[in-house]
Amino acid sequence: MAVLDNVSLAVAAPVRSIYQSDRAQARAGLVLALPALLLLLALLIGPAILVLFLSFTDASLGLVGIRFVGLGNYGRMLTDPGFSTSLRNTALYVIVVVPISIGWGLLVALLISRSTFSAFYRTAHFIPVAATLVALATAWEAILHPSLGAANAFLHLLGASPVRFLSDPSVALYALACIGIWQLVGFNMILFLAGLSTIPEELYEAAAIDGADSGFKRFRLVTWPMLAPVTLFVTVMTVIRAFSVFEIVAVLTQGGPMKSTMVVLYTFYEEGFRFFRVGYASAIAVSFFVFVTMLSLIQMRLSDRRASGKKT
Asked: Domain residues of the chain, as ranges?
């Protein structure tokens, strides 16, 4: 028995030492992660919880007291004509921007993927993504000026009448959509280029042997199917970025003329920081967050389903 006890002690001592070492490392990890966790709570999680709470109240800057209104702010969104206008304008903006920016980005990626000057073209198309959008919007304001802008000067050379790009209610939103397309094409192009670089050359050789001798056939049989995961990701990201349009509206039109360019995020900005209706603005922010989260979850679900289908 004494021998067995000695053996047990000899085995337990290293195990206990390893266990204590793991606990010490876990405590050290928690201590090291604590500053980042506190910043995360203070700058992200805490404000998000506060916004969620305020969305159920009638909070307003400058007024004393907060009253709980339940889902009143969310119900108001369904009947508010101003929010309906902004939602309709945002949907129209997305319908115009998303397919054109995705198609154009894919076309540019296909054209420059094998070009000798691909690095130059990538840089030129990516500049709108890397540059500050507020500065770019200011430059576009000068370009679209009704009398001094380069756009109307070009139309004059063609013999066309000048266009009030930013002050005509029937044109303003489409002018902003063109700027959005120009800004998103470079982002989508980079993603498609990354997807094209992962396609094995052997697939193109096999397709050529099977009779896919033209570029369109190779694209239809090889490139497009292999780009499906990237296309899904690009589509979701483009939709989110298009729904998030704010800067160009704030700089160029401020929602006008006649609310023709009023979008959801600018409505949130006006409600919260101009009219100080914090509760209603918080409800708009929460609804937008839920929408973006749902899109992201759908994208992840479809990607996982495609990956599991490939494994099986």
From this structure: 80-309
The CA distances from residue 60 to 54, 84, 273, 278, in Å, are 10, 22, 10, 5
The candidate with the shortest Cα–Cα distance to 126, out of 224, 173, 192, 223, is 192
Alpha helices in 59-199 (DSSP H): 72-79, 81-112, 118-130, 133-143, 150-157, 172-197
Residue 57 DSSP symbol: B
Q: From 245, 66, 120, select the one nearest 173 (Cα to Cα).
A: 245
From CA 75, how far away is CA 231, in angstroms rounded? 36
Which pLDDT does position 204 carry in this prediction? 79
Question: Do residues 285 and 52 touch, judged by C-beta distance below 8 A?
Answer: no
Q: Give the HSE-up count for residue 224: Cα atoms under 13 Å, Cβ half-sphere.
A: 9
User: CB of 92 within 8 A of CB of 262?
Assistant: no
Copy the structure tokens of residue 3: 């021998």
- Please state, in angstroms and rounded to a whole number, the distance separating the CA atoms of residues 68 and 178: 42
Reported as a single tens digit per residue, the pLDDT across 212-246 is 777 778 888 888 888 988 988 899 889 999 999 99
Task: Name the class of domain 80-309.
Answer: mainly alpha
What is the separation, in whole angstroms, between the first and last Cα of the chain?
Answer: 56
Phi, psi of 20 (to 5 degrees): -65, -35
